[in-house]
Amino acid sequence: xxxxxxxxxxxxxxxxxxxxxxxxxxxxxxxxxxxxxxxxxxxxxxxxxxxxxxxxxxxxxxxxxxxxx
Length: 69
Fold this sequence. Notes:
single chain, GH11/12, hydrolase
């Protein structure tokens, strides 16, 4: 389902690699311009996904994803 963070809709993927839980916010449509910090995403995870606010945030990553090929 869609999850709203910072006024935009995101698909949220959750996966586990070894002992690390990985959350990926993926835009369902192309975003031309985006200016934000990570705080709203971390707040969303602690308030809606059961992530403890005391957990260590180890490695943020970002990237692009093609929508047409």
